[in-house]
Design goal:
alpha+beta; Hypothetical protein af1432; Beta Polymerase, domain 2; 5 domains; 4-stranded mixed sheet; 20 strands; 15% strand; flat
């Protein structure tokens, strides 16, 4: 009994000692993680004065977070220290490191921004404030909320790229410790990381962070798939170890012969990239052949191409698997040669060849601005690459007030699957895959895009909607009279082009509607016996203010735009304006009133709106009758749709007149129309070889351009009806065209048709 009791007592004592040791070890580990000493080794690049400033920030943060614990039970200060350690890996400056240590102090500890400015200066306080705002962003499933939050985040990025670098370091540490967080948060945080933070790190060239964020998000989003794939990769690694050791030995030996100093390292595809490839291409794990590869680091740029030659002598290259990202760098600054070779046992092995400097940029992207300061030109280039993209987002945001529209714009630019094209002067332009000539034009300058009319690709004429391929030489022709076409929005790919086109169309439509509204109101006022509209000056300001109170508009410009769009009836506004003018002492002109009221319709032109074809968005030429200069026309002011023109014998117009006669206004053609107009014609021909060519030739000789042809779907008959939409100057020109057609061989009949062809 006594012995058993002693044994039990000894076991309890041992257990208590073990617990004590474990607690002691945990406390020691926590103390080490929470101390500044562990960080100092990574800050050897700072000057003594900078190091002291960072130490002061640590002391302040440590005191501010005193008593706070993370989900893991560790002191909270371990998180800011881990974030700062990551920033130190990128060699960020002292201000950024201080902001990293203090990044949660404003939100969690009741510290004020003013206090931070006083203690650490305005730049550090601004960065901490920016990070605090980002911390509040959680991307919900509702598109509008997601877009609005993302907009704020990008604005913070554009102001100071260090803010987003610290935020990415913060997200990386949070992902590393996500297992300690409640499981119901894993999916949201992981999805947010994959959709937002990983693509941003990739766009800024932070390759290591990009891959780590993807793999950590994958592990927490799909734990079972991650574990299964990890086991499969480990097995494959074991099976192929001998093969890859052999490749490494043979590669190193091949470089000893020419005496080249190179560093050869193995490289393994990340689990997430393997998973994505299997998922997108519907492959099994056994079908993925490029899991492993090698990186060859050489002393200078010319050695990259020498090394490529050495490798191609050693193993046969796989056709079509060579990419030169040195001559044409990726948008985020990445440079390297990529080649896939057939190694021992017929296994494909990918090699990446680059210099040490290129390797720093490949891993650290825009952070290489701080990492590689020894070469001013390199650091300036790297900084410019990141800043240029960020600034372009800020430009888009300024032109785009709608958050969802902004989100649509930037989603395209976040995933840079790029094509590389050349200007005629051999300047390289990087554009997203699927980008068109119009995207290229706007990438050069907004004026080039706005006035683009034609293009040449590799010396050959090409439509503006043509999608560009890497290596294309693109030349854009412009015309000062040209303006953006709304149809471009259906095929442009870049955010910049889309926002510039929309901005121009909105501005143009508003200006034209305002001018039309001014014409309509002046015409209605003439019908009331007043020669012209009151001026927009100080003397008439009170009059306009009274009229705006009546209509409910904020400004004269808005009122005229509403009249031009048909939202307000010009005659009603004119009658109110007449009343106000009479109250101020002005009387209608009796002679003008008589002329306007009692002149026969045919000669009543003084108050008519003149149409010359240059009105664009504010005037529509109805396709039900396709009016031409020379036709008698009517103007229908639709509700919010601007002015629609019809011929006076159009059946659609007659129905509208019966239902809505108040909305018809007097219109007339200008003596000199500014452009050609579309007309529909029906041509009946006898079937035979070359008939269409003869008809086209007859149209061309009469100076008519073909806009559309419809040959119908009937089976071959002796005769066929061809329907054309052609561009002509006026009704007289159309008559010449029809006479020309009737004289052409094989043409039995030619006439104008009204309506869709």
């Amino acid at each position: 009994m006594g012995t058993g009791s002693n044994t039990a007592s000894t076991k309890v004592d041992r257990l208590n000692v073990a617990k004590g040791v474990a607690v002691s070890n945990l406390a020691a580990a926590n103390a080490a993680a929470a101390s500044f000493a562990g960080l100092i080794a990574k800050l050897d690049y700072l000057s003594p004065s900078d190091l002291e400033q960072v130490r002061q920030a640590y002391r302040f943060a440590d005191e501010a977070h005193l008593g706070q614990l993370r989900n893991s039970g560790e002191p909270y200060i371990t998180h800011p220290i881990a974030v700062t350690a990551q920033c130190a890996e990128w060699k960020l400056d002292a201000q950024a490191l201080m902001a990293a240590l203090l990044h949660d102090a404003l939100e969690d500890c009741g510290v004020t921004k003013a206090e931070l400015i006083e203690r650490f200066g305005s730049p550090v306080a601004e960065m901490v404030d920016g990070l605090t705002k980002l911390e509040k962003l959680h991307f919900s499933t509702r598109e509008e909320n997601q877009a609005e939050s993302f907009r704020k985040m990008l604005l913070a990025m554009a102001r100071d790229v260090r803010v987003i670098l610290i935020k990415l370091a913060d997200r990386t540490h949070n992902m590393r410790t996500l297992s300690d967080a409640p499981r119901d948060k894993w999916a949201r945080i992981s999805s947010e990381t994959l959709d937002i933070y990983a693509p941003i790190s990739h766009r800024l060239g932070l390759n290591q962070t990009y891959q780590e964020l993807q793999d950590l998000a994958f592990r927490h989003l799909f734990p079972w798939r991650h574990a299964t794939l990890a086991k499969a990769v480990a097995k494959a690694r074991g099976r192929r170890r001998d093969l890859f050791q052999k490749v490494q030995r043979e590669v190193e030996a091949s470089f000893k012969e020419p005496g080249m100093a190179v560093r050869v390292t193995g490289r393994e595809k990340t689990l997430y990239s393997i998973y994505k490839k299997m998922d997108e291409k519907h492959l099994s794990f056994a079908q993925i052949t490029d899991i492993y590869g090698f990186r060859v680091l050489v002393p200078n740029l010319s050695d990259c191409y020498t090394a490529l030659g050495v490798l191609h002598q050693l193993y046969k290259p796989v056709p079509g698997k060579f990419k030169d990202y040195i001559a044409i760098a990726k948008p985020n600054g990445y440079q390297s040669l990529h080649t896939t070779l057939v190694g021992p046992s017929g296994v494909n092995v990918e090699f990446q060849i680059r210099t040490e400097a290129m390797n720093i940029v490949a891993d650290s992207g825009v952070a290489a601005h701080w990492l590689y300061k020894t070469s001013e030109s390199d650091s300036a280039t790297t900084d410019r690459l990141g800043a240029k993209w960020l600034q372009s987002l800020l430009d888009i945001q300024l032109e785009t007030r709608d958050a969802t529209e902004f989100w649509d714009h930037v989603k395209v630019d976040l995933f840079p699957d790029a094509v590389y094209v050349f200007t005629p002067k051999s300047r390289i332009m990087a554009l997203p895959r699927g980008a068109t000539v119009v995207d290229f034009a706007y990438a050069i300058h907004s004026n080039v895009g706005d006035h683009a009319v034609a293009a040449k690709i590799n010396g050959d004429q090409a439509p503006l909607r043509t999608q560009l391929k890497s290596g294309d030489v693109v030349e854009v022709s412009t015309s000062s009279d040209a303006t953006p076409n709304p149809a471009w929005l259906s095929f442009v790919r870049t955010a910049r082009a889309r926002s510039k086109i929309r901005h121009h169309l909105k501005t143009m439509a508003q200006n034209e509607s305002e001018l039309l509204g001014q014409k309509l109101l002046a015409q209605a006022l003439r019908a009331e016996g007043i020669e012209k509209l009151p001026e927009e000056d100080v003397a008439s300001q009170g009059l306009w203010d009274k009229l705006l109170r009546f209509t409910g508009n904020k400004s004269r410009s808005e009122l005229l735009t509403d009249i031009g769009l048909g939202k307000r009836i010009a005659t009603i506004v004119a009658k109110r304006l007449l009343k106000l003018l009479m109250e101020s002492g002005q009387k209608p002109n009796a002679l003008l009133l008589t002329l306007e009221r009692f002149a026969p319709h045919e000669s009543q032109t003084q108050g008519a709106v003149t149409i010359d074809g240059s009105e664009n968005a504010s005037v529509q030429f109805s396709t039900c009758c396709r009016p031409l200069p020379g036709d008698r026309i009517l103007g229908y002011l639709g509700r919010g749709e601007g002015l629609a023109l019809h011929t006076d014998d159009c059946s659609v117009a007659k129905k509208l007149q019966h239902r809505d006669s108040d909305r018809f206004i007097s219109v007339e053609w200008s003596d000199e129309p500014a452009r050609a107009f579309e007309a529909g014609i029906l041509v009946t021909v006898t079937n035979g070889k070359g008939v269409l060519a003869r008809v086209a030739s007859a149209l061309a000789s009469a100076e008519a351009d073909i806009a559309h042809i419809d040959m119908g779907e009937e089976s071959a008959q002796d005769t066929t009806d061809l329907r054309f939409v052609i561009a002509v100057r006026d009704a007289a020109h159309l008559e010449i065209v029809l006479r020309n057609l009737k004289r052409a061989p094989s043409v039995l009949h030619a006439s104008r048709i009204k309506g869709h062809s």
